[in-house]
Structures are given as C-alpha cells and as structure tokens.
C-alpha cells in the first residue's frame, strides 16, 4: 500500500538552491494544494515536462553534454533485442528528454542499423531532434591495419551515413594494440590520426572513444595520453576516455581525466574530454562524476545503465547528480521532471523490469516502511529524502507493513481520502501486524489494505459475505471414451458472467490434450454467498448457492463467485485475474508450510491493476482469501464506465504503460 509522502516539499539543501539559481527566472513557484501529510507551506512544484517536439537546445549552454548510447552499447545487454521500431521509439523518448547526442548504431555492421538511420529522417524524428538540439551519431572504428582511410569500408559507411556526427573507437592500451589488433603503437597512432582527419574532411563532427584508456594509462602513461592528444590534434571534437573493463576507482578516474584535459588544452585544439564508464565494480556513475570533476564535459551512458556484462553508467542518474548535486546543467530546462517517465518507458521498450531500487527513478527510491521514518517525514520531509522527488518526476510513498506505526496508517487513510480516528488506525495496525505474522505481506497489496480500512469503518456495508465453500479436485475415470468424445459446453451460465478472455477455459478444460483415455480431471466448487442490496439486514439479503467447474480449483472458485455475484454487480464482467503467484513459507521444510498467494486483478479496458494477498496452510484457503478481497475491492472501485484505482507512486499516464506499482 503506497501513499504520497512528499509532493514537492522544499529541502534545506544546496541541491535545490543550485537548481533554482540556474533556472531562468530563478523563482520558486508556490504550490497548489497537495493532498499529503508531508506537504510544507510554500512547497515547490515540478515544472510541467516538455513535449518531444518542444523547442530548445540540448547541447548549447549545457555544462556537461549527455551522449546516449542505449541503442548501440545498451542493446548489447543479455536479454535486450530491439527491433527498428523499438529503436525509433527509444530515440523519441531521448529526443523529448533533450540529450545532446543519440548514438543510433553502427551503419556498417547490420541491416537493422542501416534501416534505423534511413527511418530517422522519414519518420520525422530528425526534424524533432533538430528542433530540440539533439544530434544523431553513428558508431564505427578507426581504419583497419594496412588499409588507407580512403579505402576502408568501415569509414566509407560512416561518411555515407546521414548522421552528422560519428564516434569511432580507438585502442589506447599498447598491449591490446599488439596482441588484439596486431599493430605497433606507432601504427595505432597513425590509424587514429588518419581516420579522424578523413572523417573531418568529409564534414563530420568526430568523437574518439579511447578504449581501455585507464588500463592503458596504468600500463604505459605516455602512449595512452598520446592517443588522446593525437585525436585532438587531428580535429576530433571530443576525446572520450573509456573505462572499458569497469575496474578503475574514482580517484584514479579524476586524476587521469585531469591529466588528459591539461594535455589536450596544451595543444590549442578545439577539443574537449568525455567519459564512458562500465559498471563492473558498481562505480560507473561515481566514475562519471569523478571525470566531470577532472574536467570532462561529456558523459556517455545508457538509460537505466543497460549494457554488456554489468552495464554502463546510468545516464539518467548521472544527469540527476550533475544537476541536483553539483549544480551543472546537463539537460534542457524542464527535462529533469521527465526522468522517471523516460526510465520506465525505455524499460518497457527493452522488455526489462524497471529496478524499484534504481536511484531517483525507482518506485522505491523514495519509499518509507518504518513507522519512525514516516513520523519524522510528517515533521520534516527532508529527514529521509535526499531531494524533492518531484524534481525527477517521482513521488515519495509510505508502505504499510508490520513495521508501520500509527502514522503510516493515518497517512494511508488520508491518501485514500478517508478520515479515520486514532482508535480505528490502531485497530487496522493491529490487524496488519497479526496478518503479517501469519504470512501475509501487505506492503504491495494495496487492495487488501484498502479492504481492511473499509471493514473497519462502522458505516461500511459489505456487498457480499461468503458463508461457506467446498472444493472438489479429483481425477475421475469414466472409462471407454477419448477426450474428443467428451461433452462440450460446461455450464452455459458462465458465458454471461466471465470476461471475454476467460470464456474458453471453463468449456475446454476437460478436453485438453495430454489426458489419457478414460481419465478426466475435475475441479468443482460449491459456494454459498449472501448478496446484499443496500445494507446487511436480513431483509436485504439474497442467499446464492452456486456450483461451478474450472480449469483448476482457483479458476473454479472464481467462476462460482462470479455466478453468485455478477447479476447484482455486473462490473465484475470487466475484471479479470491478471497474475497469480504462490510462495511457500518454509516451516522446517515440511509440507505443513504456510502458503502465501498474491493475485493481481485488472480492468480489461484500461489494464489498471490492483493486488491482494492471502496466506494459509491450505493453498485453496489462501487463494480464496485473496480472491474475495480482489472482487470486493473491484465491486467498490469499478463501474460500467471503468475502474478508479490508485496506480501507485507514479501515475500510469506518466509511466506511459510501464508496469504500474500496486
């Protein structure tokens, strides 16, 4: 169960002061009324995010430019495979965010990247990028050994590509030059100089990624620095120092970056220094920040830190740190408030679950569970939040669990629009602690917590009450016929009460392939339910006794409840069970262990979801408890026009279809 803790309350920190000093106008807007216990008078509200085609320059006037390589380096992560449509959709979000450079791919490597560069223009994305100041970059490498720059096919693909910028990778570690490329250090320097000069002559803006720079610097400082300086003198706009193996520590990154900056500046070349870090020691973000301290003015990285092995620097986290912690501009004005939205949208396009613990953007980045913390946040929002969450488009929230205090309960009630007494809060808290001691986990089961509040209200009238139920699960032998000879149809009444996507299962569960001749699985449920009109008096009671079958005992239970309830509550027809999860809570490894069942329900028209939980030694009983809570919540929150459900710490519209919090 989550609630808003902090919707833009001011923090007494340099981060907000720095932000306000930098922004045009520099004046904090007064907030509108915020429905939260944790609102301070005079709180700051987030600026409305810019649309993707908003005017403004991404790279101009930025202290540090953001170079995104999600479409190339990020796609090397195991489990990520982007279609061309996916790549264009990711690029659309990056253009809307206002990154200075988007690396589209390697035009000489595969047809998909060739298609991407072609569709960059035909899709209209090129015009939207130009309006926002975002530049497209193509990736490649220096000329091959023994081939002139004019004859190199890779360089030809880069010059022919419509991208105005190119980023080529060059070795900066002498041992790699000799053992991997098979060239001498002298030849490697020539490859860098000739490749850069060739691309500059073709009218390209050139960046050189000095691969393995930090390992090379430790092995042979003179050679590594010479690689970077040679690129700068040949016309590169940026020399980018790559911590390719991800094993360098921040203080070395800062020192070596400063060393290169001084060497490049000494040449008089119009060239700046960048940084590209991998996350093998979980230091990619820290190393990127250290490089900026050392003089780097470009940071390369990926959305959500995607990339091979353990990933790259999370470019969104780096941008937030630069802006909010260091007072350096990295994105156009107003873009910070889009970080959470972009993070979730790109995660969905990459078929990745967004990490709830991701700094700044994760659903738990500003989540508070302990009662003492929530009590402190009521008095001082900055006590356990390092920034105002709305600055990055996120929200603080409290979760309800056995660690909660009465303040959590009162805050949860207020967030859901309820006014409860301290006595009621104490009652609900006592129930939560008791339930969690028996295996329930309520911190994400918002609907189950909501039902506890409803049932604690003396004016609440439950829509129904289950008197008893019986489940029969068996494998019966009728003998002598095959599955194709089984009767078709089942209980025809279910056709009128089930969601469309669940209609097929109850009528075919006895015909599914895999049953041996003469053997039929049977799951039957008898449920007795009191259905109430407006109150729970005997006069308004309508007792239903219903029998149903299903594809398993839980499905049979749901079907029986629908038969009993749908005539009175037709909104149940649009509610379907979206997910069902079982956890075995060990009791010394015996079969007597308590079973916890978590159910996700969804409105079939909007995919708005809610979650309930049940726990019991019987998996059937645990499932039924979660099922009853989910249907009771759905009856209360849904109508023929749809469902009204709290989507969690970030509104569904802001996450653009990403998996919502429950």
Describe the protein's architecture and organization.
- The chain is of the alpha/beta class and 662 residues long.
- Helices cover 35% and strands 18% of the residues.
- It has 21 helices and 18 strands.
- The protein has an eight-stranded parallel β-barrel with strand order 1-2-3-4-5-6-7-8, surrounded by eleven helices.
- α9 (221-233) packs across α10.
- The model is unreliable at 1-57, 401-405, 479-489, 506-515 and 647-662 (pLDDT under 50).
| Beta-strand share of residues | 15-25%
Q: Can you give the helix content as a percent range? A: 25-40%
N-to-C CA distance: 7 Å
Tally the helices: 21
Radius of gyration, rounded? Answer: 30 Å
SS content category: alpha/beta
- Order the strands across the largest sheet as they lie in space: 1-2-3-4-5-6-7-8
> Shape from CA axes?
elongated
How many strands appear in the DSSP assignment? 18
Spans of at least 5 consecutive residues whose pLDDT stays below 50 are: 1-57, 401-405, 479-489, 506-515, 647-662
Mean pLDDT: 77
Largest sheet: 8 strands, parallel, barrel
Keywords:
662 residues, alpha/beta, 21 helices, 18 strands, 35% helix, elongated, disordered N terminus
List the helices and strands and how they pair.
Elements: H1 14-22, E1 65-68, H2 84-97, E2 101-105, H3 111-122, H4 125-132, E3 135-141, H5 153-160, E4 165-171, H6 174-181, H7 185-201, E5 205-211, H8 213-219, H9 221-233, E6 238-243, H10 250-267, E7 272-277, H11 284-293, E8 298-301, H12 315-324, H13 339-349, E9 367-368, H14 371-379, E10 397-398, H15 406-415, H16 422-437, H17 446-456, E11 464-477, H18 504-508, E12 519-532, E13 541-549, H19 553-565, E14 575-585, E15 594-603, E16 609-616, H20 619-637, E17 638-639, E18 642-643, H21 652-655
Parallel strand pairs: 1-2, 1-8, 2-3, 3-4, 4-5, 5-6, 6-7, 7-8, 9-10
Antiparallel strand pairs: 11-12, 12-13, 14-15, 15-16, 17-18
């Amino acid at each position: 169960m989550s609630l808003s803790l902090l919707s833009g309350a001011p923090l007494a920190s340099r981060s907000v002061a720095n932000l306000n000093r930098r922004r045009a106008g520099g004046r904090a807007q007064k907030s509108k009324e915020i429905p939260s216990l944790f609102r301070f008078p005079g709180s700051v509200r987030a600026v409305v995010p810019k649309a993707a085609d908003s005017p403004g320059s991404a790279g101009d006037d930025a202290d540090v430019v953001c170079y995104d390589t999600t479409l190339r380096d990020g796609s090397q992560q195991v489990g990520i495979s982007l279609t061309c449509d996916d790549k264009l959709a990711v690029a659309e979000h990056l253009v809307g965010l206002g990154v200075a450079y988007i690396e589209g791919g390697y035009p000489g490597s595969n047809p998909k990247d060739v298609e991407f560069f072609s569709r960059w223009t035909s899709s209209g994305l090129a015009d939207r990028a130009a309006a926002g100041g975002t530049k497209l970059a193509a990736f490649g490498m220096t000329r091959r050994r023994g081939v002139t720059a004019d004859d190199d096919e890779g360089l030809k693909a880069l010059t022919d590509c419509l991208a105005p910028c190119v980023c080529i990778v060059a070795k900066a570690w002498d041992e790699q030059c000799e053992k991997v490329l098979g060239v001498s250090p002298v030849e490697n320097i020539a490859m860098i100089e000739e490749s850069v000069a060739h691309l500059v002559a073709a009218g390209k803006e050139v960046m050189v990624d000095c691969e393995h720079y930090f390992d090379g610097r430790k092995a042979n400082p003179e050679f590594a620095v010479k690689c970077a300086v040679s690129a700068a003198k040949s016309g590169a706009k940026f020399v980018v120092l790559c911590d390719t193996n991800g094993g360098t520590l921040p203080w070395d990154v800062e020192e070596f970056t400063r060393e290169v900056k001084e060497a490049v500046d000494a040449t008089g070349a119009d060239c700046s220094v960048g940084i590209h870090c991998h996350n093998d020691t979980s230091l990619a973000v820290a190393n990127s920040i250290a490089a900026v301290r050392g003089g780097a003015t470009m940071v390369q990285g990926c959305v959500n830190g995607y990339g091979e092995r353990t990933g790259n620097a999370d470019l969104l986290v780096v941008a937030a740190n630069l802006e909010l912690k260091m007072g350096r501009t990295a994105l156009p004005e107003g873009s910070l408030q889009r970080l959470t939205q972009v993070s979730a949208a790109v995660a969905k396009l990459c078929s990745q679950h967004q990490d709830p613990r991701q700094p700044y953007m994760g659903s738990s980045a500003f989540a508070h569970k302990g009662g003492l913390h929530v009590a402190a946040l009521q008095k001082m929002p900055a006590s356990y939040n390092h920034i105002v969450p709305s600055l990055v488009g996120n929200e603080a929230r409290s979760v309800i669990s056995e660690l909660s205090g009465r303040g959590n309960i009162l805050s949860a009630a207020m967030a859901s629009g309820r006014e409860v007494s301290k006595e009621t809060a104490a009652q609900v808290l006592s129930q939560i602690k008791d339930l969690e001691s028996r295996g329930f986990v309520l911190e994400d089961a918002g609907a189950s917590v909501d039902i506890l509040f409803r049932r604690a209200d003396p004016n609440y009238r439950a829509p129904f009450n289950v008197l008893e139920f019986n489940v029969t699960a068996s494998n019966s032998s009728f003998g002598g016929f095959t599955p194709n000879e089984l009767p078709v149809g089942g209980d025809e009444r279910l056709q009128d009460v089930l969601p469309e996507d669940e209609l097929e299962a109850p009528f075919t569960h006895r015909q599914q392939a895999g049953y041996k001749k003469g053997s039929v699985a049977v799951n039957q449920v008898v449920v007795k339910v009191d259905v109430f009109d407006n109150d729970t008096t005997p006069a308004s009671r309508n007792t239903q006794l219903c029998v149903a079958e299903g594809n398993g005992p839980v499905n049979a239970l749901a079907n029986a409840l629908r038969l009993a309830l749908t005539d009175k509550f037709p909104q149940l027809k649009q509610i379907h069970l979206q997910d069902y999860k079982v956890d075995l809570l060990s009791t010394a490894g015996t079969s007597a262990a308590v079973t916890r069942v978590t159910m996700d329900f969804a409105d079939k028209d909007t995919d708005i979801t809610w979650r309930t939980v049940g726990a019991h030694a019987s998996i059937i009983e645990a499932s039924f408890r979660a099922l009853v809570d989910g249907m009771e919540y759905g009856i209360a929150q849904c109508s023929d026009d749809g469902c009204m459900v709290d989507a969690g710490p970030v509104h569904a519209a802001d996450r653009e279809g990403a998996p919502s919090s429950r």
